[in-house]
Amino acid sequence: MVTYDMTKTPVVNVVDDIIANASKAGASDIHFDPRENSLMVRIRVDGDLQDYTEIPKIYERNLITRIKLIANMNITESRLPQDGSIKGTIKGINLETRVSTLPTNEGEKCVIRILDYSRSLQGIDTLGFNESNLSKLKKMIAEPNGIILITGATGSGKSTTVYSILQVLNKKETNIITVEDPIEMNLEGLNQVQVNSEIGLDFATVLRSILRQDPNVILIGEIRDSETAKIAVRASITGHLVLSTIHTNNSLSTIERLLDMNVERYLLSSALSGIISQKLAKMVCPHCRIKEPTTPYQKKVFKLALDKDVDEIYNANPKGCDKCNNGYHGRIAIQEVLMINDEIRSALNEENLEKEDLNKLVYTSDVITMLQDGLLKVLDGSTTFDEIYKIIDVDDDLDVYCKIRDIEYHENNENNNVVEKEEIKEEKEETEEKKENDIKINTDEEVNLPIIDIHTITKEDEVL
């Protein structure tokens, strides 16, 4: 951790130094966490939080006040949450950030989100879409009307994808109007509207006015309620291309969410052009990655999902190197792109449509699922199987995948286990032997056991 001599270093310099160093390290967020005896500063790099420095408790209020001051927030209010932003140059680095404070029992917690839209400015070709998905995306945004939804959890890169699409659509003959909360990136040539709910300027109010502004393309920052969803869908069928984001996990759950918001089926079927679902996985360092043989479980996953026999894959080097963080550097998007076809449109009009039937329609089309896209990126050495296992429920996805193809996933596992029984036993014996040796050697140290392998073997043994 970095140590600051607070008796000799002004708080202004400390704040500037923390923000500048976090930006240089490629951090996405800076957390100022109030503790009982100190203020812990942590930075999120490649999706993981790591300790940066610890500030004595007596300087906590001064440091938080300084952040609120440069973020144009009310420095006298510490009982309510506040939002602000920092735009400018800090130690020669041009920065744009969002700042949020939250009162806790130990003091005010502050989080600074560092906005980096350099990837957006490079265009959609640099976002990690595979060839098939990129082709579908380009077809969707070439349509004159319809609604395109970008879905995913908070911090999954939705805004980066949205702004990349807007960069493609931003032409002199096109009128683009956005309604956002907050405006995350200022783009020349766009008419961007900031939502202000305190005066009644919400998404629905702005959208009704936008439709009288002769737009070609409309961006809705986020579909949060039924009214916004209905206006967005109606705008798309009246000759406008609508882009928006929504918090769902995949294509199927997005359709279900819109139906739950009471969007009429006949409107949704005619308006929806496509859904882009995405998550972020850590990229394995190309300089120190290691190639290792696949486990029986990994072989099974590759065989079922991709119909490929895979003997070796790249894994992260836990020791890392001077160019990475424990074997990882940067993040890559894992995507699923659904382009709505006539068959799916017809099915959406049916009131009694079962979820299983819609599932079959969606995932028996030419959709590359998020699991398949992730595994393909494991094969090309971009990420690791462990990372895909963390962000995607592999077993659940394979179960759905097998049901669609009338295969019993567990029966399939059982058949494969008969063939691989000896291999699994050997792997278990090796793991147990290694475990005993590690315990003997590291009696006074923390023992790092191969948790993933043990869980995998346990799962196989239960099936057997």
- Fraction of residues in β-strands: 15-25%
- Rg computed from alpha carbons, rounded to a whole number of angstroms: 25 Å
Provide mean pLDDT, rounded.
Answer: 85
Instruction: Work out the oligomeric state of the chains in this entry.
Output: single chain
Low-confidence stretches: 411-425, 438-464
Count the beta strands. 15
Helix content: 40-55%
The major β-sheet equals:
7 strands, mixed
Strand order of the largest sheet: 9-8-10-11-7-12-15
From the spread of the alpha carbons, the general shape counts as: globular
Count of discrete alpha- or pi-helical segments spanning 4 or more residues: 17
SS content category: alpha/beta
Rounded to the nearest angstrom, the distance between the terminal CA atoms is: 48 Å
Provide an overview of this structure:
The chain is of the alpha/beta class and 464 residues long. Helix content is 41%, strand content 24%. It is built from 17 helices and 15 strands. The protein has a 7-stranded mixed β-sheet, with helices on both faces. It is globular, with a radius of gyration of 25 Å. The model is unreliable at 411-425 and 438-464 (pLDDT under 50).
Brief account:
41% of the residues lie in helices and 24% in strands.
List the helices and strands and how they pair.
Elements: H1 11-24, E1 27-34, E2 38-45, E3 48-56, H2 60-70, E4 82-90, E5 93-104, E6 107-114, H3 118-121, H4 131-142, E7 146-151, H5 158-169, E8 176-180, E9 191-194, H6 203-210, E10 217-220, H7 226-236, E11 241-246, H8 251-260, H9 265-271, E12 272-284, E13 290-293, H10 296-306, E14 312-315, E15 328-339, H11 342-348, H12 355-363, H13 370-379, H14 385-391, H15 394-404, H16 409-441, H17 451-463
Parallel strand pairs: 7-11, 7-12, 8-9, 8-10, 10-11
Antiparallel strand pairs: 1-2, 1-6, 2-3, 4-5, 5-6, 12-15, 13-14
Helix pairs in contact: 1-2, 6-7, 9-11, 16-17
